[in-house]
Amino acid sequence: MVNSPPSLQALIEALRCLPGVGPRSAQRMAFHLMQRDRQGAERLAVTMGAALQRVRHCERCNNFSEEPVCQLCLSPRRNGRLLCVVETPGDLLMMEQAQCHDGLYFVLMGALSPLDGIGPKDIHLERLLQRAADGVVQEVVLATNFTVEGEATAHYAGELLRAKGVKVTRIARGLPVGGELEHVDSGTLAQAVQERRAV
Hints:
Strand order of the largest sheet: 4-3-5-6
CATH architecture of the domain at 79-170: 3-Layer(aba) Sandwich
Shape: globular
Number of strands: 6
Radius of gyration: 21 Å
Strand content: 5-15%
Largest sheet: 4 strands, parallel
CATH class of the domain at 79-170: Alpha Beta
CATH topology of the domain at 79-170: Dna Topoisomerase Vi A Subunit, Chain: A, domain 2
Number of helices: 8
Oligomer: single chain
Helix content: 40-55%
């Protein structure tokens, strides 16, 4: 069996840290970069190094930022009384694209998952409690995912926040806009019926 040079093997192993990338995919990526796109590999190395040097967490919302406090948190156009809690920076971007929230955010950078060893300290719940008790925030909207981990996180965070006297709400579940009942899974339909509202 032919072995790759040690530096190439190290690159393959390093690429495996990416989500959804197994040994074959990592090998394909490494071979592509070395064989067909060495300039792209160089750009990747330089930008990765720069990001690792510059990117930190915003002191207020915990999202990625190059400054101590990010531009979104500094914006005078945001409603500081409303704080939306999301799991990831990607979730924050989706909320912003939907233009459905004009307040501020707190990014947990994960969800509670005891099986994976992720506890309250790993998702910065203490920082969330401090942020929500700043005297300005009047309502915290829990917008974690509707997975087992997301639900557990919302429940746990909600309990902690309510104990501090903070008003807590949870985003609703239900049918997608434009969805047809015959194409919706039974769990989503049941939840939509349970959370029905007056019209």
